[in-house]
Amino acid sequence: MSEKVFPKDFIWGAATASYQIEGSPLADGAGPSIWHRFSHTSGNTYNGDTGDVADDHYNRYKEDIALMKELGLKAYRFSISWSRIFPNGKGKINEKGIDFYNRLVDELLKANITPFVTLYHWDLPAALQDLGGWTNRDIAYWYTDYTDYMFQRFGDRVKNWITLNEPWVMAFVGHFMGEHAPGMKDLYASFSVVHNQLRAHSKTVKAFREENIKEGKIGITLSNSSHDPATDSQEDKEAARLAHEWTNYPLFLNPIYKGEYPSGIKEHASEFLPHNYENDLEEIKEKIDFVGINYYSGDLVKLDTKSFLGGKTVERGLPKTEMGWEIYPEGFYKILKGVQEEYNPKEVYVTENGAAFDDKVVNQEVHDEKRIEYLKYHLEQALRAIQNGVTLKGYFVWSLLDNFEWAWGYSKRFGIVYVDYKTQKRIIKDSGEWYSQVIKNNSFEF
Ligand code: FCB
Which of 22, 166, 286, 326 is labelled catalytic? Predict the structure, then answer.
């Protein structure tokens, strides 16, 4: 056994997202989001589950912050629901939506927990979808009008801002695979969504700089899985490289840091990008303060000429989580190290990492050893990354609470706190107790 000690001032947190936990999506004058619409359309989610009640966090936020305090969290990442603030996406402001987030932020600060706010975690106002949503170029303006207003209303107390959560998932799972809202299946739409999210992101970063928020920092959160070649063949190596460039941080960080799409995208997919996309690249290249990395799993990639960008994943027999995702902590290190080597960000945060398991309540306790093990192995790799030069400043476990896991509804539990959806009772799982000790000691035994 050895002790894994983290740097002093390391930020330990937990993450959630508005539509997944809040419930009451239409309360107090809020407008519907695309996830409200999507989940209310039959056949889209497991069991027809919706975010109508979720964790009822909209009403129970105080109790939840008390739990965070009990766990000793230093930071909390949550997202703002755009359509609570602008029910139609733009124009009329709903002051009651502002009130909710004011109460939340003030309560967090009272508990000494630093808020990290995600400005967009997939719940686009439905009214904007009717205008083409992320495929409409004007969204860069709609989005920045909204985000700039958030800086003005919360910037006195919220210092850490994340523009977008996992824009790859928004673009491809939402617009190509049709499994997430808005449920489209159009590759051209997906690439215009990638491009417009980048434009929206950069305009917002500029607006943020102009607001001059004291000690303010802004970054973006990207999805990643470790794609490794199935064999040593050139073909499989190339397939893995393309999968990495297309689905991981390079798709967004290359334009943001270098003003160009990754070479694989330019070579193989530029026909899908909007006409004259090159004209926007100068504007997209804009300094950010940190990169947010989400990481859950890895896979092996093999050449497959029939699939988009020529790759398919193959089994390697590693243990999996309840999502069917391979547990591959080594890949976490590779992603963290890769991002530092390729873009050298000033700061990196792990904005999500965690696992779903089939948790059972036994005598009001949840013994989720597998989650503890998952977290241990991943934190070990995070520490290894720090020791090897990665500017990793904090880690947010996904998730604080069991919640609405998008198309999987309530069938997958990611929380370090269990939620009984019938009674809304919360039970801190063993992993929550374990994480709490890690925070307290700033270290763990491995
Ligand atoms: C990420 C999402 C988050 C959650 C986890 C399991 O892709 O950002 O909302 O669903 O996966």
Answer: 166
What residues are paired with 395 via a beta bridge? 12, 350
* CB 80 within 8 Å of CB 123: no
* Residues 226, 335 contacting (CB under 8 angstroms): yes
Identify the residues whose C-beta falls under 6 Å from ligand 1.
Answer: 17, 20, 165-166, 169, 223, 294, 352, 398, 405-406, 414
Q: Are the C-beta atoms of residues 356 and 413 closer than 8 Å to each other? A: yes
* Collapsed DSSP state (helix, strand, coil) of residue 261: coil
Cα(35) to centroid(ligand 1), Å: 14
**Is 352 among the residues known to form the active site?**
yes
HSE (side-chain half, CA atoms, 13 Å) at 311: 28
| 166 has catalytic annotation | yes
Query: Beta-carbon neighbour count of residue 253 at 10 Å?
Result: 19
Catalytic residue among 22, 107, 286, 352: 352
**Tens-digit pLDDT profile for residues 303-324:** 999 999 999 999 899 999 999 9
Residue nearest to atom 9 of ligand 1 (CA): 17
Nearest to 55 by CA among 432, 428, 400, 366: 400
Question: In this structure, is the dihedral angle defined by the CA atoms of residues 78, 80, 84 and 88, taken in order, positive or negative?
Answer: negative
pLDDT digits (tens, 9 = 90+) for 350-379: 999 999 999 999 999 999 999 999 999 999
**What is the per-residue burial (b if ≥16 Cβ within 10 Å, else e) of 176-201?**
beebbbbbbeebebbbbbbbbbbbbb
